Amino acid sequence: MNALPSRDNWRRREWLGGLAVAGVGGLFCIPTVHAGGQLEEPLADSVRTALSSAIANSEPPVPVFADTQRRLAYLRWLGATSDRLHRRKPDFQTRIEFLQTVWYESRRARLDTTLVLGLIQVESAFRKFAVSRVGARGYMQIMPFWARVIGDGDVGRLFDMRVNLRFGCVILRHYLDRERDDTFMALGRYNGSRGRSEYPSAVYAAARNWAHPDA
After folding, report:
1. pTM score, two decimals?
2. For the purposes of burial, counting CB atoms within 10 Å of the CB of 106, is it exposed (0-12), middle (13-18) or buried (19 or more)?
3. Of 29-43, 94-108, 120-134, where does mean pLDDT reach its minimum?
4. CA nearest neighbour of 167 among 96, 116, 205, 130
């Protein structure tokens, strides 16, 4: 995978936003986060079809490696990242399944796994049921309109781990393609703040927490 952009290329303004938790009545409490909102933009039919196809495959994220060396590198990354994530996700099985899925979906979408983890940290602080004040949902804070535009219309499925990570990675890849692989601009578009530095700077800073030689 491509390395993260060098620090010299990152915008260095501090992240001024934050995450807040609010209880909601029901069977569980849904934390509220203060992420921005992606803007619904017109899509050409060919783009809509391509995106719908990209999120359609429901196969489980089973890693396949060309050789033992790559498999060992993956296991080193998985072990080290699992240790770092322990405080946020204490249950071992949940944590490993989450990381396996992030690894699989990021590579499937040709994304940097470290950057995706940074984005998840900023968007939801790794909370499955996070909801932003503009209605974005889950780990990667998917706006409900995406379920209608490229999914089956079932907004509730955006709380499913694999569905959420699949949508998030496919959407980020779409924005990178639109911005000709300009990560700064693509992240701004993902947050609905294209051209502003606060959100990309926050993601870059968070991504440093997950940097690993084998990522």
Report:
1. 0.80
2. buried
3. 29-43
4. 116
H or E element: which one contains 75? helix 68-85
User: Which of 108, 20, 102, 115 is closest to 56 using CA atoms?
Assistant: 108
Q: Delineate the domains of the chain, giving CATH numbers in brackets.
A: 7-208 (1.10.530)
Residue 164 · residue 154 · CB < 8 Å? no
Q: Report d(CA 110, CA 104) in Å as an integer.
A: 10
Q: Which amino acid is at 66?
A: A
Count other Cβ atoms within 10 Å, centred on residue 202.
25
Question: What distance in Å separates the CA atoms of residue 203 and residue 112, rounded to the nearest whole number?
Answer: 12
Q: Mean per-residue pLDDT for 24-53?
A: 62
Beta bridge partners of 132: 33
- pLDDT greater than 50 at residue 4: no
Nearest Cα to Cα of residue 212 among 101, 92, 106, 115: 115
